[in-house]
Amino acid sequence: MLLVQPPTKSGDSDETGGATAMTNEPIADRDSAQSETQPAAPVAATLRDEAFFIHRLSSKLVAAMGRLAAWPLLVALRRALLLSLPMVLVGAFAHFVNALLSFSFVEVLHPEVIDALRALCSTLVDGTFGLVSLVVVAGFSYSLAVLVSTRADRYPVNPASASVVALACFFIVVAPETLERWKDALSSSRGLPAALVVAISASYLFLFLARRPQFRLRLRGFGADPLVGDLFSILPAGMITLLVFAAVRQAQVSLGGADLTTALSSVISAPFAGAEPSAMVAAAYVLVRQSIWFLGGHGGNMLAPVLEQMMASANAASAAGVPTAFTWNFFPIYSAYGGSGSTLCLILALLYADREPAIRRLAWLSLLPAFINVNEPLLFGLPLILNPIYVVPFILIPLVQALIAYAATIGGLAPVADQMVPWTMPALFNGYLATGSPAGVVLQLASLAVGTVLYLPFVRVARRLRTASNAEAMRTLIAASESTEVMHGHRLIDLHGTAGHLAGVLARDLTDALASSDRLFLQYQPQVCIEERRVFGVEALLRWNHETYGFIPPSVTVALADDMHFADQLGEHVLRLACRQRAAWASSVPGDLIVSVNVSPLQLQDASFDRKVLRVLAEEKLDPHLVELEITESTSLAPAAQAIGALLRLRKAGVRIALDDFGMGHTSLHYLRELPLDTLKIDRSLTFTSQGDLNEHVIRSIVTLSRTLGLRAVVEGIEQPEQLPRFIDLGCARFQGYLFSRPLESGPCLDYILANAGIAA
Description:
alpha/beta, TIM Barrel, 59% helix, elongated
């Protein structure tokens, strides 16, 4: 090797694909070291087999949970519930404020002010909680239509049409007789389960019909607005769906049945009829209540008749001298820390075990509401509702906590929680008020610890699934960003599914990263000349270190900048950083060391591109001869007169122009004829050659052509030692690739340049 490489640690690799270094430790030494520390062969084999079995079992379980979580039905339900989150939060805090108005400290306010605040809170609750069901129906049908649609659909369905049909079906089926029942039907407390049943059944039926030609009207050129044609084309499918639900409603009325909301509540409460309070009944009550919450309903409200029956029996037993643990406060105090599902325990588990910044921010934001038993940020934001990953702890942890509290109360370790406290009273404080003893607080602390520990493994599973999903979405974005579709105007943020969502998140974050001093930065890959035995230039490579997703591939970053229409700002930012670094190296590196910067096609379309480049050079006080702009040949951009003029003016000012990914196709020769060039960078796809193959002849022709035209030829992608002598034989002298150095940050790159300043062979 003519040039030294930067030292690497064992196993070190770059995100763009460096080879993993092997340890220099002799194999015999490693084997002997293992033999001293590992168990005997049969035992070791058994342990390995068991570990492998457990690993495969857990991997299959995690994969199955991931597939279930990605099921369009559950995804659409989670999105629909998430849409209602702002309304639910406002309503929950209105409830909290209304509860505060009952305390004596607010008596300093005028009674009319208190009455006005109560009326305001009531209005907010009615306008938020009171309309959640409508939001869920519309949101689910819209989301499901988006999720099941593909570009290949012959008969696509407008998502707005699905929402309209589902809402109509909801009103047809629910349709109670009185105003109070209408409030129940539309609210989040009692109406949400019925809304979910109607939304799912109506949406699936309508989409099934609307995507089949026999249930569509074939209209061509109908109106100026395409939505008109979409709506009329699905009329048969919509009408059939509405007729089916109207028939269901008519059958229910004819048979004298209750409306759907009332019927669901009656069915849920029926198994508890006549049951006496006991540990078994309490366990069943918690299981059913939590299951309802998991499905999106208000478990406490829907099981209110059951709780009333249990409390009546418990009061009667207490009056007869029979000890009982059950009071109105028992379940809120001992199995609803942070709200249903004991979400305060989940918040603590997330803060302990999940390192993702976005999840930690959600946990911190949810902490204050959780202290007053408002858990909607996690129910809808994480989400917990209809999330198969958290179904087990969400349902079972409150059950475990209730049984612990029941045993402690019956065993005399804690007093009976017989003092009434508002449901918004913070955890621990409410334990003291309800029992009148510190023992109630100690019991709550023990239950909190148990719940947090039980949530931890599920938090880790969720993190693994999220990581796998993000990795798959990122692979999709990388493939899309390097495809010809993006080069011809298709946007990453328009992709369907998780990849499109990730692209949208990254696109928004890229705007903030441009204003950050550390998120977007450059690495520099040295370019070496074998004949001169030195580094003659470096290529500046964009790097984005995202706080959640780590290093984002440059192709994705550039494509997102194009999507958001700030490719010019990003390109200027990169150019400025590169020029600033080259100016900072001025006294340390050879005076003719060139820094190369990539230029996107959109930058060249800017009429003021050349003026912006020269302005940056002037502001950073850098000689134009030390900068080389690289134009990518693979973009197939037909050089417009404006772009060629800008490049000619820059070259006249001293800026060098390079053509990246150069091959020998028609487009390559067209660029060679049209553009003012100084350097040809040979496409890395040509570097995989064997003796006498076609690529070898192409490379030899490019080298000869570049010498004839007075251009530098640089071979990219040199990674293997056996490549180097072959390219030297072909007449190549300038190289760039992992064989010499991976991309380096400014400090290590300067060390590399200085260490390779004219080394003898």
